Amino acid sequence: MLICGFEKFSMVDFGDKISCTVFTGGCNLRCPFCHNGALVIGDVASQREDEEEVIQYLAKRKGLVDAVCVTGGESTLQPDLARFLSRVRQMGYITKVDSNGLRPDVIANLLDAGLVDYMAMDVKNSTAKYAMTCGLKSVDLSAIGESMRVIMAKAKDYEFRTTVIKEFHTYEDMLAIADWIAGAKNFYFQHYVDSEGCISHGYHAYDKAEVTELAKAFEGKVGHIGFRGFDY
Known about the structure:
alpha/beta
């Protein structure tokens, strides 16, 4: 698997579990606010890390680390993702996979095989503004919708989440997203940070009070509304 980074200790990527986070290279979107720009538009081959070294580290950390999170870039682009997850699970780790939802067939296969304990999918925006938010001329919205249906039907546990930015998201967009994922178990608002690793810069984040107003769009439509990075 094309591993381009490895965070050995995290307490924010998988709820209250202590996890290791594996970053895969390459992505099929070009979201301008992406904070892992080097994994999207950079020379991913030069960033490659030895998978066996990651596995050896995990072997040494058994009992101290609970979970392994696979993110990106876009994790589902990796043709051997299932094999990697299988190896990790055989070591006794629980697993989390982050995805943008453009490959519902891969997501379905992973869930059917019981390789993912927690599935997290980004919902970039309302359908009308999806492509623009992703930095593309067009996006396969049918694939996005199918991934939502697959995750809600098959995942052991899961979340949908949106990184909210003033230049991209309005309350009307939140209403549209809420209707799109109606009946979902968990939805999270994520705080935008204009970091050095972003593909583009100059966007503006919502503050705590503002995102509380946005959250009203989801009331009664999802089971749980959560917030990350807003000092809640």
